[in-house]
Amino acid sequence: MLKRFGLLAVLLPLVAAPALAHHPMEAMGLEPTAFSGLFSGLAHPVLGPDHLLFLLVLGLVGWQRSLRSALTLLAVGLGGSALGLIWPGLPAAELLVSLSLVLEGLVLSGRVSPALLLPAFALHGYVLSGSVIGWETTPIAAYLFGLLLSQGLLLAVSLKFVQRTITSQQRLWIAGALVGVGAAFSWASLVG
């Protein structure tokens, strides 16, 4: 019984905070440079519980088992980030990111097609680009490179470790938890 809830016990503290615009540059008072942009890109997905959960659970979905699939996801996310830089201000973007956790839970439980996660991944990239609007080209490029590296590492961890240690029964528990967490984040986004 304890083993069944082991991963949930690890993941639950990550989801205790509501979905935020999580950007380390503002908190540390850093100016946009190539180094700070790279650092921010590396840290950004890790500091947001919604983005972190989304990336880690992707390995459980089952359709992205090859390097090619992971590279496709990274390209889709980077495309979403580029779109966010070109066309910022998508209404309710953070709400949609929260709802993407619900979607991921439904995919994990086999209720909807995994193909719906591609636009959700692009949406995550879109939202992650919002914090660098107005920066110069070099810090933005460094940020996007750092973002690509950190998301690639998280996907690799998801594929290599998370996927292999979770049973089918645990997948259903995680799917239910994702739906609940996504719904809670969505509610917080609506009322907060």
Polypeptide structure, described:
This protein is mainly alpha-helical. It has a domain of 116 residues. The protein contains nine helices and no strands. α3 packs parallel to α8 and α5 packs antiparallel against α8. The longest helix is centred in the last third of the chain and has 29 residues. The N and C termini lie far apart (36 Å). 38% of the residues are buried. The N terminus is likely disordered.
DSSP helix fraction? over 70%
Question: What letter string, H or E per element, gives the SSE order?
Answer: HHHHHHHHH
Average pLDDT score: 83
Instruction: Please provide the count of β strands.
Output: 0
Low-confidence regions: 1-22
Q: How many helices?
A: 9
* Radius of gyration computed on alpha carbons: 16 Å
End-to-end CA span:
36 Å
Helix-and-strand structural type: mainly alpha
Short summary:
With 192 residues, the protein is mainly alpha-helical.
Question: Which features would summarize this protein structure in a list?
Answer:
single chain; 192 residues; mainly alpha; globular
SSE topology:
Elements: H1 6-11, H2 24-28, H3 34-47, H4 49-61, H5 67-86, H6 93-108, H7 117-129, H8 137-165, H9 168-191
Helix pairs in contact: 3-8, 4-6, 4-8, 5-7, 5-8, 6-7, 6-9
